[in-house]
TrEMBL record:
Region annotation (Disordered) ranges: 1-20
EC annotation from Swiss-Prot or TrEMBL: 5.4.2.2
Annotated Pfam families: PGM1_C_vert_fung, PGM_PMM_I, PGM_PMM_II, PGM_PMM_III
Top-level enzyme category: isomerase
Family: Belongs to the phosphohexose mutase family.
Cofactor(s) it depends on: Mg(2+)
Protein name: phosphoglucomutase (alpha-D-glucose-1,6-bisphosphate-dependent)
Species this chain originates from: Limimaricola pyoseonensis
Length: 543
């Protein structure tokens, strides 16, 4: 087993996006593509000689093959040890926890997260730093620079490593420690939440349905919700991870998790419903007959987090991505704690969490998390909800109604236009950027623009600046629209239009969001010319 050095040439387009590098699976399978990127990660972080890394993924097609390649490359590059999830599986939050718990030099996560999987779908790879979080731009810039000058990679010529059972083995001089992917994570959840209270709730007849969407959270949810908390067997559905997520789209929103929505809206609906995404870091929350928007979920969790043991002393602060609604800001104000507004992507929360400035973070895209790891965490959010439901013994609908009555309701929706030709999408954004300064004072569809700018973020901890993070337009009545292009897609461009309107009139808190937002939707189209410029009559996905 000798390490060999393979000559290669830089491959274009290996620039990490919002969350790692995502490409069509077939692109990842092209000759040298994966190897070049892995070597660039190793080079970009200053080499891995003597280092320990965590490795695992969401089990999508090519996960197993890519893991074997990475192990051989890690060995050839002189790593001391790789801690790998059994069958190369680890949910993203479990990987983050393992990196932190074992004090490793970071980890590699094989996932394209909420993107579909399979030979004709998507694959991805992400490097997380020793704090357990996605690499910040200072690191991904170095990785990208390495991809552009790469001339060789190192790999061991060896047989596949057997990852089927836990234990220690060797690959060349490198140690490989195969671990149960669920055990450490489940233990962490027991430390954070009041499992006895949740067990009590469930034994009193409270019913739940968790849809793992054929993705990586299945084994985690079965162990925690059914085995440890006593939810009825079968409460976790679609619990076996499959390489193409059962042919579905592992994105927990009302469109892609429509089976869960149907179950929760039926006459025999359980009390609580939830779903998570491909790699287990997102969550969707429902009660009987109600869907909770991610922005409302974040606000409600912030308001009640002190009911869970880990947060009993209150929150140091909260943070949300810029396009996320201002609902959590209102909770922060009433609690007298700081609220930070960051660019889209979990990597921007890392410094705030490390510095102890924020305890809870969230994004409108169904990501919620806390300082227990450095990734968003789907099952954690589900357990925090269950802890709150157990402590209050109120229904999801009741909690939501009370929340809106106290804080007002930020009606919210996101309209996605997918697979738009890139030049059309860029032209729309460029055109809008060019006229932002003229918008204030003008009226569109009956709404008057108050302010308009392009969001940039100065990190209060390390002073780094991220610019061009979305165009935002606010109106005099408290409404807002944000435009940005997705950084996780693998075909064309996805235009995201984020719509929000604050309502504090107690008589208007129960409207249909699309109706409540109709004026904002009309103003957004009038300002940006979405239909005219994209040729689309309607969004592809409304969440
Ligand atoms: C999307 C979401 C963003 C999220 C990111 C990764 O990014 O909008 O909030 O952090 O996906 O989530 P974009 O650039 O496509 O808007 V995951 O669960 O796919 O890692
Ligand atoms: Co994800």
């Amino acid at each position: 087993m000798e390490p060999i050095t393979v000559e290669t040439k830089p491959i274009q387009g290996q620039k990490p996006g919002t969350s790692g590098l995502r490409k069509k699976t077939r692109v990842f399978k092209e000759s040298h593509f994966l190897e070049n990127y892995v070597q660039s990660i190793f080079d970009g972080i200053g080499g891995i000689e003597g280092k320990t890394l965590v490795l695992g993924g969401d089990g999508r097609h090519f996960n197993d093959r890519a893991a074997q390649v990475i192990l051989r490359m890690a060995a050839a590059n002189g790593a001391r040890r790789v801690i790998v999830g059994q069958e190369a599986l680890l949910s993203t939050p479990a990987a983050s926890h393992l990196i932190r718990k074992r004090g490793t030099d970071g980890g590699l996560i094989l996932s394209a997260s909420h993107n579909p999987g399979g030979p004709d779908a998507d694959f991805g790879l992400k490097y997380n730093t020793p704090n357990g979080g996605p690499a910040p731009e200072s690191v991904t810039d170095k990785i990208y620079a390495a991809t552009q000058g790469l001339t060789r990679y190192r790999i061991l010529e060896a047989q596949d490593v057997d990852l089927t059972s836990p234990g220690l083995q060797h690959l060349g001089d490198m140690e490989i420690e195969v671990v149960d992917p669920v055990a450490d994570y489940a233990m962490l959840m027991e430390e954070i939440f009041d499992f006895d209270a949740i067990r009590g709730l469930l034994s009193d007849g409270f019913r739940l349905r968790f849809d793992a969407m054929h993705a990586v959270t299945g084994p985690y949810a079965v162990e925690i919700l059914e085995n440890r908390l006593g939810a009825a067997s079968g409460s976790v559905v679609n619990a076996t991870p499959s390489p193409d997520f059962g042919g579905g789209h592992p994105d927990p929103n009302p469109i892609w998790a429509r089976d869960l929505v149907a179950a929760m809206m039926s006459d025999d609906a359980p009390d609580f419903g939830a779903a998570s995404d491909g790699d287990g870091d997102r969550n969707m929350i429902m009660g009987r007959g109600v869907y909770v928007t991610p922005s409302d979920s974040l606000a409600l969790l912030a308001a009640h987090a002190h009911l869970a043991p880990a947060y009993k002393d209150g929150l140091k602060g909260v943070a949300r991505s810029m396009p996320t609604s201002g609902a959590v800001d209102r909770v922060a104000r009433s609690k007298g704690i700081d609220c930070y507004e960051t660019p889209t992507g979990w990597k921007f929360f890392g410094n705030l969490l490390d510095a102890g400035r924020a305890t809870l973070c969230g994004e409108e895209s169904a990501g919620t998390g806390s300082d227990h790891v450095r990734e968003k965490d789907g099952l954690w959010a589900v357990l925090l909800w269950l802890n709150i439901l157990a402590a209050t013994r109120k229904s999801v609908a009741e909690l939501l109604r009370e929340h809106w009555t106290e804080h007002g309701r930020n009606y919210y929706s996101r309209h996605d236009y997918e697979d738009v030709e890139s030049d059309k999408a860029n032209a729309l954004i460029d055109g809008l950027r060019g006229k932002l300064s003229q918008l204030p004072g003008q009226s569109f569809a009956g709404l008057t623009v108050e302010g308009a700018d392009e969001f940039s973020y100065d990190d209060p901890v390390d002073g780094s600046r991220a610019s061009a993070q979305g165009l935002r337009i606010s109106f005099t009545g408290g409404e807002r629209v944000v435009f940005r292009l997705s950084g996780t897609g693998t075909a064309g461009a996805t235009l995201r239009v984020y719509l929000e309107a604050l309502e504090i009139d107690p008589d208007k808190l129960a409207e249909d969001p699309q109706e409540a937002l109709a004026p904002v939707i009309a103003a957004a189209d009038e300002i940006a010319g979405i239909r005219a410029q994209t040729g689309r009559d309607a969004p592809d996905v409304i969440t």
